[in-house]
Design brief:
Radius of gyration: 17 Å
CATH class: Alpha Beta
Order of helices and strands: HEHEHEHEHEHEHEHE
Keywords: Metal-binding, Oxidoreductase, Zinc
Strand content: 15-25%
Largest sheet: 6 strands, parallel
CATH superfamily: NAD(P)-binding Rossmann-like Domain
Number of helices: 8
CATH topology: Rossmann fold
Number of strands: 8
Cofactor: Zn(2+)
Distance between the termini: 21 Å
InterPro entries: ADH-like_C, NAD(P)-bd_dom_sf
Protein name: Alcohol dehydrogenase-like C-terminal domain-containing protein
Domain Alcohol dehydrogenase-like C-terminal: 42-174
Length: 212
């Protein structure tokens, strides 16, 4: 950990950060290819920056315009913003400028949300023979259309976190490129309030409890 990195910044990097970094690595897309980060929350807002620094063309996808606006304001911003309330056809059209293969869609998508509907959306945005990396863990399991996955020969890859060496790579990348992590600070006695805010879907980025 760099000497000038604050603990409140490092804490979410050791959870959300290494989770999204490991997922992007597992996508196995050659540099210059396209990656979609689906879900611009605690993991996704870090992932869009990381993917850009790794040399990818990046599409950020979320149902909240505010989340897309936030990542668009970062130094390492996505190439394309996809508001998920639009039709799949309109979203695919927006990805045309960053498509690198012979088929419509993105080389890979990384699922950084638990929302059930996001999985089929991500499959629809992934090109034929492309890859989906699954990080989200819906309570009732993952459901996707077989037409999206089987008929288009999409590879599904599960990912949890990065290994130790990758974690060090990620921290170095984060620090050298001055990436941003959105942090909301709470006191220990506010833990229940923090939990309720999280369950209500309020706020962006990661929650951090700071102990005096």
């Amino acid at each position: 950990m760099p000497d000038d990195m604050e603990f409140k910044v490092a804490a979410p990097l050791m959870c959300a950060g290494i989770s999204i970094y490991g997922g992007i690595v597992k996508a196995g897309v050659p540099k210059g290819g396209s990656i979609g980060i689906v879900g611009i929350g605690g993991l996704g807002h870090i992932g869009t920056q990381v993917a850009k620094c790794m040399g990818y063309k990046v599409a950020a996808t979320d149902v909240k315009q505010s989340a897309l606006d936030a990542v668009a304001s970062y130094t390492h911003s996505p190439d394309v913003l996809l508001l998920a309330t639009g039709s799949v056809e309109s979203l695919l059209q927006k990805t045309e400028e960053i498509q690198s293969g012979a088929y419509p869609g993105l080389d890979a998508t990384v699922l950084a949300t638990d929302h059930p509907a996001a999985f089929d959306l991500a499959a629809s945005l992934t090109r034929k023979h492309g890859t989906m990396v699954l990080l989200g863990q819906p309570e009732k399991g993952i459901t996707m259309s077989y037409q999206n996955v089987i008929y288009r020969d999409i590879k599904l890859v599960g990912s949890l976190v990065a290994d130790t060496a990758q974690a060090q790579e990620f921290i170095t990348m984060f620090h050298e490129n001055k990436l941003h992590v959105e942090v909301t600070e709470w006191k220990m006695e506010e833990a229940e309030k923090m939990k309720q805010a999280y369950l209500a879907g309020k706020g962006n980025g990661k929650n951090v409890i700071v102990m005096d």
